[in-house]
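Supplementary material to the annual report.
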Amino acid sequence: MNAAPASAPDIAINVEGLSKSFGGREVVHDLSMQVKRGSIYGFLGPNGSGKTTTIRMLCGLLTPDSGEGTCLGYDIRRDADKIKRQVGYMTQRFSLYQDLSVRENLEFVARLYGLRDARSAARDMIQRIGLNGREEQLAGELSGGWKQRLALGACTLPNPRLLLLDEPTAGVDPKARRDFWNEIHALAADGLTVLVSTHYMDEAERCHEIAYIAYGHLLAHGTVDEVIAKSALSTWTVSGDDLNGLAAELAGKPGVDMVAPFGTSLHVSGRDKAALEATIAPYRDKRGWRWEDSEPSLEDVFIDLMNRSKDNFQ
Amino acid sequence: MSATDAASQDRGVPEPAFGFWRRSYAMLVKEFIQLRRDRVSFAMIVMIPVMQLLLFGYAINTTPRHLPTAVLIQEDSDLARSVLKALENTRYFRFTREVHSVAEFDELLQSGKVLFGVEIPRGFERAVRRGDRPALLVAADATDPVAAGSALGTLGAVVQTALAHDVHIGDPPQLPFEIRAHARYNPAAESRLNIVPGLVGTILTMTMLIFTALSVTREIERGTMESLLSMPIKPVEVMFGKIIPYVIVGFIQASLIVSIGVLLFGVPILGSVTLLALLTTLFITTNLSIGYTFSTIVQNQLQAMQMSMMFFLPSILLSGFMFPFAGMPVWAQYLGEALPLTHYIRIVRAIMLKGADPSNLQYDTIALIVLMLVAMTIAVTRFRRTLD
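Predicted assembly:
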């Protein structure tokens, strides 16, 4: 593998101030991020927040309007060809050839990257992703989970140094999702850097680092614990009877920024700890409810970030 | 269950009044909106009929005049000049070349640079004065019977009228000389001899265009373009990868058409089969490149089909396939020169019917190569390497 001419060899992605507009609408605004080599970096945010656009700018599929940066040490504006050679990109929508078989798709990719023995490379990959027995099946006829495996297989086939996965587990069942993440961790353990976008909170917690993006703005980043700590959100967990009634009563009161049911309990959160405590004080002594000062969950933090960003940008 | 029960159960969801029309209307409105958004298709709705009608209404002429003609003068006499003038006055002929040897005369006809040749023999005037009725040779390239036919058919009468008041030979019951019309290459004026080679080119134009015109749009519409672009492949490589398989397909098609032409229609191949194969492959590649260029310009498969049609119709009508090329106005001829089919039809007719060799076909071969390279250059520069 080539040595990348990176100034900081332990950084795989380093971008500064990326912006991109489509038809006058800014989809990504002044986005900066750094991804450490060999880490799994989770990219979170609601639909239409600019995750896909950012990923496409990283691998040269889109040209940023402004901003600059490097991917694997190569300039994302000038060296798109070199980046493509070492990056595996798994698109959100299945984008391999539906009318080619599993084997034919993999051989096509292997040949495109100039692998010496495309046939055996494809054969090994079929073995690795557990698609043996289905080699000759047309890709279009595979179920969602198998398609996703094939897509992952195709983008890891040329031994990339960086994987960009755009919502790889959307619409995949939990078992397949777990297997998929085990595979991602195994790949990262081999030194591969993985940037993965997702909606799922449990997946975010499987990442070494995460970034949260909404309305094209990067709102928070760091490890899961750091993001929660930085949120400065106070959360109380309430359990007991008639939580729906309580939720309706608390919503919108001073200091209460968010009320969200979690199974049999209720999360009441606010950024102003004192105001929140003043508001809930009268309810704390009432019978039937048990109040507990707790950590906000990642989801609380994200919903809060999203609510706040909505106020700012919409 | 009785009919009334079923009717009373149906009452739960009442059928709206005029349901059929409402739903049809909903569909109709949706289609109109989609059509309006598809600007290219919208433009084509107006462009195709108007452009084609204007183009072909003015350009097509089945009794062509002012056809390029070479003159071989072996005698410079008053009578010879009068005859030539009379010929030109018929407006069928336009003397573009004056040659001095039979070889030159033949070469011009064979390469298709002229459609007619007039030869005035040595001692023509003297023979006329003596009353020997010498022969005036009018050779025609009859590969296209339509182009040659009307000129040859009226020749005798028209020349006689034109000469009557010019030459003081009174008003003899017949011309004092004989006009020997010689329909070369297709003496029986069989139109199939002309049509079949032309069909080779026409069929290939249509099939080749469609093969590649859809190729890039198909990748975009199926979403595979995103994957493809994220991989290290260059526009030229995509283009060659998409064109080359169809060169083989086109070659098989061409062999089939030519074989049928020879076996079933009895069209000869007087020239070299290898040369024919070589230049046919060039023609196929040119058309595939043009189709591929279309697919890099259009946004969807419908537009690709429309654009192919826009290209195909003029190819049929302005290439000399259906109507004599030489009979078209100059502007239409220039348009025709930009179509690969025009050049290929000259090539294929020349090789099959006239036995032409490479030296006769230089111009058309170079034209095909130029058209191919222009199309490829446009395609490669138009091919978007990003999703911007």
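Residues 250 and 284 of chain B are 6 Å apart (CA to CA).
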